[in-house]
Amino acid sequence: MNRYTVELRITAESLSPEQVTEDLGLEPSQIRHAGDQRGRLSVFTKALWAYGGEQEWASLEEGLNSLLRLLSGKEPALKRYATTAEVFWWCGHFQSTFDHDTVISPALLGKLADFDFPLHLVSYFPDDA
User: Fold this and answer.
1) Where are the alpha helices (DSSP H) in 52-126?
2) How confident is the model at residue 129 (pLDDT cuts 50, 70, 90)?
3) Which residues pair with 89 in a beta bridge?
4) Where does the chain have alpha helices with state H?
5) CB 84 within 8 A of CB 47
6) Angle at the Cα of 125 (from 124 to 128), degrees rounded to 5?
7) How far apart are CA 75 and CA 90, in angstroms?
8) Which residues, listed in sequence order, are joined to residue 129 by a DSSP beta bridge?
9) Per-residue model confidence as pLDDT tens digits over 41-83
């Protein structure tokens, strides 16, 4: 069965995740600071603030619509961040088969377009399938 995760992400070298949390009044699902350890030999060059939670969805449409409802009224603050940071929809597609279509309705596309943020759809396939 395919499943999806969705987040709104804000990233920049000089971003303060704590300030984003304060400005938006939302608890992030994840944060990181520029300079945080990425692995044994590398560090993150950009800070990140992400909102969406660990919830998984059976459809991308359902997940994005839920996230849009949670972000209702936050558009002006998010658009201000877009002037100094990269703001985007991050969608993880965890697929179990290749015979599955991901469909996004025109209505949802219109709602996403109102924000004017790019959408990143990242697909994952289990190694053992």
Assistant:
1) 60-70, 75-81, 106-115
2) very low
3) 8, 119
4) 17-24, 60-70, 75-81, 106-115
5) no
6) 145
7) 17
8) none
9) 999 999 999 999 668 998 999 999 999 999 999 999 999 999 9
Burial of 104 (0-12, 13-18, 19+ CB in 10 A): middle
Find, among 90, 83, 44, the residue nearest to 67 by Cα.
Answer: 90
Bridge partners of 3, per DSSP, are 94
Per DSSP, the three-state class of 122 is strand
pTM: 0.89
What's the CA gap between 129 and 126, in Å, rounded? 6
Q: Dihedrals φ, ψ of 69, to 5°? A: -65, -40
Q: Which amino acid is at 22?
A: E
pLDDT tens per residue across span 14-45: 999 999 999 999 999 999 999 888 888 999 99
Residue 102 pLDDT greater than 90, yes or no: no
CA torsion, points 127, 53, 88, 3, in degrees to nearest 10? 40
Given its phi and psi angles, is residue 63 left (phi above 0), alpha (psi -120 to 50 degrees) or beta?
alpha
- Tell me: the pLDDT tens digits for 63-73? 999 999 999 99
